[in-house]
Write a structure and sequence with these properties.
The complex is a heterodimer of chains A (284) and B (486). With 284 residues, chain A is of the alpha/beta class. Chain A has 2 domains: 212 residues, Rossmann fold (3-Layer(aba) Sandwich), CATH 3.40.50.450; 53 residues, Winged helix-like DNA-binding domain superfamily/Winged helix DNA-binding domain (Arc Repressor Mutant, subunit A), CATH 1.10.10.10. Helices cover 39% and strands 16% of the residues of chain A. In chain A, helix 2 links the parallel strand 3 and strand 4. In chain A, helix 5 crosses helix 6 and helix 9 crosses helix 11. By secondary structure, chain B is of the alpha/beta class. Chain B has 3 domains: 178 residues, Ribosomal Protein S5, domain 2 (2-Layer Sandwich); 212 residues, P-loop containing nucleotide triphosphate hydrolases (Rossmann fold), CATH 3.40.50; 65 residues, no CATH class. Chain B is built from 21 helices and 20 strands. Chain B has a 5-stranded parallel beta sheet. A 4-stranded mixed beta sheet of chain B has the order 1-2-4-3. A 3-stranded parallel beta sheet of chain B has the order 5-8-9, sandwiched between helices. In chain B, helix 2 crosses helix 3. In chain B, 49% of the residues are buried. Classes of the chains: A alpha/beta (284), B alpha/beta (486). The interface between A and B is large, with 31 and 41 residues.
């Protein structure tokens, strides 16, 4: 563990620039503290997210990390955890900001995740070892998440969500705020849709963030060779996410053939499945 | 004066020969039963005494000692009443002593001398056949069961009838062969009632063809239980040996219906969520078969899987792996066969909202974690097929009825025969696909083996010589999804 005093030259400049930067930043992990100065984007959102939100968070984490951007989040369940996992999948660098003492893993369920984050990235906190997690520490933690980043992406948020507090801090400090549009009927989208109404940048793919930061996206790979059935199924899934049974209905396809096509698409990384619903991967 | 009758005691599903010795001597009149007899067995004293009196026979006013040998084996139940009565009657020479030779006996006595059936008559009759006895005296209701074992039953309604038989006054009525006694029953639940749900139907067919364990997950009211109950209708009928095995279990459990001694139908057991571990796998002080054993050669259906107690679910792991349940007691070990097919249904979260586009899940993270905690990875690993059952659309529900159970069963039977004749081998390309899947999807080593098994069934159903990429790809679609455990 390292203690970075505010006067320390390794103390991230972006964080020092905010209204009330922490006096000390405790850092653990094998990554260099200097990586906090790299281009960084925060991905935040609801703890009890939908499969859609989880998929988007993971995809954004993966693609941003692959483009060399540091992915910052809060190690919480749901969106935060998925964003970290996505970054780790791409073997990228990710930073977790805690709302409790630097020696603790909160929530405990993400202990293993925090261990993996430490391998290449960092876990940081403004609290000295032994500090208990408390409800009022998380909004304070959110100001650090916003402070460390050039942009904040809100994936899914209810009307009164901690992610919106992070967005507010970002706005106050003049950082970019992006929001992922969601269904207007879902309560998990009310927060993000409200942000969009207020003028946040709508995010429809990782390219939107990368463009904002002026980073070149990875060149897209060549489209894989798909069987005719798989291509037909992909087209249908891209139109709207659906269950396997909805794909058999058009008449021609049998349940077995649909399963074959879906697995082919899944292995090609073009489709993901959660709770029985198949979704096309954005940008895939 | 000494006489000896023979009966059989149940140890698990097996029968052990027990010699019932009655010795009459001078002394204070009375009856003592020795030889590790339990409470029910000790109470035989009163039933036997009243039964003999009611049959207008003489109760010897001597000192009577009844010994149940081997003395070290624990005897329980009321089936010893009849052999005890016969030994006492023979010892007091109320019928010729030598007439008992070649006969075994089992049955409970009523106070008026009638003979009541007891559980396990089939197992006892089989024991009698193995021990070289040609005839077994039993209650009239048990005669059909005893005949299944290949022993000639001497059915009797009353103790007086039995004595008349041993005195050579009457001959036992012939027992009609069971084969004609009961026509095979048809399952009234037909797959044609299920509309839509193509993937779940397909999985049900695969489960039937390959004997795979199957888990349906989805929001409430989407037909999970309805589908599961229809598995029985597409399974091939029981073979003669299987039918006898199932009958033996039901006989021991005392669940045979009197008119139908031979069980012809595959069992379908559906224990309630409150069932304890001993209720599921068997047990109790004098072990009884549990639901897992009662589902032998049939289907064990657990509706609302996560609502079951965790110990009850974990207890299922042994029978799922080994096909039997071993119950150890101080007095010994009972082994019950339990080769069943497990079908389970569950919601994706406690409120049932998950996986339903029309509803939103309101479960807290803690509630969800507790819900998933119930299902260990190890248990989920026992399901070869895991299928999400989505809410069907209105168009599917108003569509035409699905394929009938009968035509699906024909395919299942054909596929089973093909797979038994020679399981199809995997092509190189198929193996490569499997390896690629292990790398890219969350799939464990055991998961890989499961996918391989299911792929073989798919190939068998399709009447293919080899397991190709296509079969593996379909099998991969039924792997257990990560969201059920993480």
């Amino acid at each position: 563990m390292i203690e970075l005093r505010r006067a320390d030259e390794r103390f991230p400049a972006r964080l020092r620039a905010i209204f009330d930067p922490p006096r000390t930043l405790y850092v653990r992990g094998t990554g260099e503290p200097e990586l906090l100065a790299r281009r960084a984007v925060a991905i935040v959102g609801a703890r009890s997210c939908s499969p859609y939100g989880a998929q988007v968070a993971r995809m954004l984490g993966r693609e941003l990390a692959a483009a060399g951007v540091v992915v910052v989040s809060g190690l919480a369940r749901g969106i935060d955890g998925e964003a970290h996992r996505g970054a780790l999948e791409a073997r990228g660098v990710t930073v977790a900001v805690l709302g409790c003492g630097i020696d603790r893993d909160y929530p405990a369920a993400n202990g293993q995740l925090s261990r993996r984050i430490e391998e290449d990235g960092l876990v940081v906190s403004e609290y000295e070892p032994g500090v208990e997690p408390a409800p009022w520490r998380f909004p304070a933690r959110n100001r650090i998440i916003a402070g460390l980043c050039e942009a904040v992406v809100v994936v899914e948020a209810r009307e009164r969500s901690g992610a919106l507090i992070t967005a507010d801090f970002a706005l106050e400090e003049g950082r970019e705020v992006l929001a992922v549009p969601g269904e207007i009927t879902s309560s998990l989208s009310t927060g993000t849709n409200a942000l969009l109404k207020l003028g946040a940048t709508p995010l429809t793919g990782s390219a939107d963030v990368l463009e904002l930061l002026g980073v070149d996206a990875r060149p897209a790979g060549a489209a894989p060779n798909l069987s005719p059935t798989a291509a037909q199924v992909l087209e249908r899934v891209r139109a709207s996410s659906c269950s396997a049974d909805e794909l058999t209905a058009p008449g021609a396809l049998e349940a077995g053939a649909v399963s074959v096509a879906l697995t082919e698409l899944e292995l090609a990384g073009l489709v993901v499945v959660a709770e029985g619903t198949y979704r096309a991967v954005i940008g895939g | 004066m000494l006489a000896r009758a023979v009966t059989h005691a149940l140890v698990g599903l097996d029968a052990r020969k027990v010699e019932v010795e009655a010795h009459l001597q001078n002394g204070l009149p009375g009856l003592a039963i020795v030889g590790l007899a339990d409470r029910t067995c000790q109470e035989a004293k009163h039933r036997v005494r009243s039964g003999i009196a009611s049959a207008q026979l003489e109760w010897p006013s001597r000192r009577i000692t009844v010994n149940l040998a081997p003395a070290g084996l624990r005897k329980e139940g009321s089936g010893f009443d009849l052999p005890i009565a016969l030994a006492i009657l023979a010892a007091s020479r109320q019928f010729p002593l030598d007439r008992l030779a070649g006969h075994a006996a089992i049955g409970e006595l009523a106070l008026d001398g009638r003979i009541r059936p007891v559980r396990g008559a089939l197992a006892a009759a089989e024991g009698a056949r193995h021990a070289g006895f040609g005839r077994i005296v039993c209650a009239a209701e048990s005669a059909g069961e005893a005949a299944l074992a290949g022993v000639e039953p001497v059915p009797a309604r009353h103790l007086a009838e039995v004595v008349a038989y041993f005195r050579g006054e009457i001959e036992p009525p012939p027992v009609e062969p069971v084969e004609n006694a009961s026509a095979p029953e048809r399952d009234e639940l037909d797959l044609a009632d299920v509309r839509g749900q193509d993937r779940a139907r397909r999985a049900l067919e695969l489960a039937a063809a390959g004997g795979h364990n199957l888990l349906f997950a989805g929001p409430p009211g989407t037909g999970k239980s309805m589908l599961a109950r229809r598995l029985l209708g597409i399974l091939p009928p029981l073979t003669a040996d299987e039918a006898l095995e199932v009958t033996r279990i039901y006989s021991v459990a005392g669940l045979l219906s009197p008119g139908r001694p031979l069980v012809r139908r595959r069992p379908f057991r559906m224990p309630h969520q409150s069932a304890s571990a001993p209720a599921i796998v068997g047990g109790g002080p004098g072990p009884r078969p549990g639901e897992a054993t009662l589902a032998h050669h049939g289907v064990l259906f657990l509706d609302e899987l996560p609502e079951f107690q965790r110990p009850a679910l974990e207890a299922l792991r042994q029978p799922l792996e080994d096909g039997f349940v071993g119950i150890a007691r101080v007095e010994g070990r009972a082994v019950y066969p339990a080769r069943f097919q497990l079908v389970a249904a569950m919601n994706m979260c406690p409120c049932g909202g998950r996986g339903d586009p029309a509803a939103e899940c309101a479960c807290s993270a803690q509630k969800l974690a507790a819900f998933r905690e119930k299902l260990s990875r190890a248990l989920l690993d026992r399901f070869d097929l895991v299928v999400a059952v989505p809410r069907p659309r209105a168009a599917e529900l108003s569509g035409r009825p699905g394929e009938s159970s009968e035509s699906v069963r024909a395919r299942v039977v054909a596929a089973r025969e093909r797979i038994r004749a020679g399981p199809p081998a995997r092509t190189v390309a198929a193996s490569e696909l499997l390896d690629r899947a292990v790398e890219r999807l969350p799939l464990s080593g055991r998961g890989r083996a499961r996918v391989a098994r299911v792929a073989r069934t798919i190939a068998g159903l399709a009447d293919c010589e080899a397991v190709t990429e296509e079969h593996v790809a379909e099998a991969l679609a039924y792997r257990s999804p990560k969201e059920l455990t993480t």
